[in-house]
Amino acid sequence: MIEGALWRRWVFYNIPLILFVFVLLFPFYWMIVTTFRPDGELYLPWNAPNYMPFWTNNPTLEHILYLFEETNFARWMFNTMFIALVSTVISLFCGVLAGYALARLNFPYAGGLGTAIFITYLVPQTLLFIPLAEIIRNFQLGDTPWSLILTYPTFLIPFCTWLMMGYFKAIPKELEECARIDGASRWKAMVYIIIPVAVPGILSSGIIAFTLSWNEFIYALVFLSSPDQKTVPVGVTSELIRGDVFFWGPLMAGALLGSIPVAIVYSFFVEHYVSGLTGSVKG
Amino acid sequence: MAEVSLHKLNKKFDTTHVVKDVDLQIRDKEFMVFVGPSGCGKTTTLRMIAGLEAITAGEIRIDDRVVNEVPPMDRDIAMVFQNYALYPHMSVASNLAFGLKMRKFEKAEIEKRINNAASILGIESLLQRKPRQLSGGQRQRVALGRAIVRDPKVFLFDEPLSNLDAKLRVQMRVELKKLHERLAVTSVYVTHDQVEAMTLGDRVVVMKDGLVQQVGEPLELYNTPANRFVAGFIGSPAMNFADVTLVENGGKPVAEAPGLRIGLPGELATRARAKTGHKATLGIRPEDIHIATAADAPEYCFEATVEVVEQLGSEILLDMRAGPALMVASVEPTLRVRAHDSLKLALKPERLHLFDAETEAAI
Hints:
The complex is a heterodimer. Chain A is mostly helical. Chain A has helices spanning about 5-35, 40, 60-70, 75-105, 110-120, 125-140, 145-150, 155-170, 175-180, 185-195, 200-215, 220-225, 230-240, 250-275, and strands at about 240, 245. Chain A folds into two domains: about 1-60, no CATH class; about 65-275, MetI-like (MetI-like fold), CATH 1.10.3720. A two-stranded antiparallel sheet of chain A has the order 1-2. In chain A, helix 11 packs antiparallel against helix 14 (about 250-275). The longest helix of chain A is centred in the first third of the chain and has 32 residues, at about 75-105. The model of chain A is unreliable at about 280-283 (pLDDT under 50). Chain B is α+β, with helices and mostly antiparallel strands. Chain B has two domains: about 5-235, P-loop containing nucleotide triphosphate hydrolases (Rossmann fold); about 240-355, CATH 2.40.50.140. Helices cover about 25% and strands about 35% of the residues of chain B. Chain B starts with a strand and ends in a 7-residue tail after the last strand. The interface of A and B includes residues 178, 181 and 283 of A.
């Protein structure tokens, strides 16, 4: 808290905070208002007499109905959910094991290997999709969910590995040593002691990995082409923008419905998530 | 029933040699304490006995079995760690049960052992709690309980009391001693606190720079330290040292420094005579210095100026300067003395120690 006079608290704390919250939440607000606004209001010119950009008196569900009746939106949701879940599970599994190995098994070049894994995360996807497209074509995986399920881990595994490595390093070594003296093998010590203690870290990397794959755009755009294979971000933008015509109502409805699962995931795990990122292991 | 023997034990981390040729026999039911300053190799030695650290060279036997290559789980040992290492996601009862479950004990037997250990340690009411709901002393007890339920051949303790506050530490020290008498299991205990070493140990190993300096019963280390390091490390306040030259004075050997001349009695004189003309270090414990009276022979007396008076209630510590040497004397609490006073003090001649200036070994 800022101490001192009231004006100081307003200038240095309250006003910046309000501005920040406004900037963050306004797009959401805009999305919601547009979703429920009838087309007749949406396309009014700004200088029309009854122009009311921030509110509507005639809310409608027509855009949401349009999404489900005229487009494959339900199918896109399912695709996105399936792809995000499977690639998150694969990445978490690999990331937890790799992170543990890099943090705890003292093998030669462990440090170098860790850095190398991190560097692969730094290669931008906008470059990586070109060679990956070639690979996907060679394996004839184009236009299937597997093209994404197998390519998302290329950036999710390094990410999960690094997050988990840091988390495992923060867990006292003695816990594991004690378990091994208590009669557990290295594997059992990991399964019964280290992984349960690391649950907050595993949840955080899982949530972030899920969000990253849920929102991923470039690979989905390049590797998928038929309408019923698409994910939400690609489906909404490719099917609801036709040429230079933007179907704003359904677009925003799709964006709103598409962000709900992520919001649910975050709010459900938020406590674990915070303690995972701050790396607190209470003895 | 277990003896632990270390034979020419060595440990190197890359280029640093942290444990050097340690030879030691730990007897059955003995409470052996390793003590030394940090970095002396005591914890590494303990970890090698536990099997948590690979052995560079040498041999460790538990009873007659060489355990160099035996994994920790098969050595039949239990260890208490400095930070307790309680499993944070398990209740106290599960913490105690973990080692037994891993060894596939019957459920009834596990329960019996947990209840037994809990009643020994007085933690029956805590069994359902999680470690984070416990105080430091309670966590310490649970860590002990986890070792007790296993009924191992050897207990290993790695500075188990150093995370507790001073009062609790004294209390737990006493309990540990009682516990050892009751359970009579061979124990190896590592500490940097010489008071813990003296009070707990049947025998004590003093280590420094990876080398064993002396092994012996606590009073043996106190009365006849093998070298200057042990002399300075054991005992509180620490032994006083003065750099002296050994000379003959009227046919008698004396230790001499500018402003200080102390006669050497009996056997010490015989041993010192062989080193006449050499430099040496004279050692005397603060409790072996007192205010001189007419009964004290003049060759064991010296003059000193008091610099600081430390009132402890049960005794007074006088920080003094005698010639070039700074000394501490522990004197009667009734003595009236102030800083800058000049005093005539006497030593107990039979309690004098002499150390070679070069090798630092006792003369």
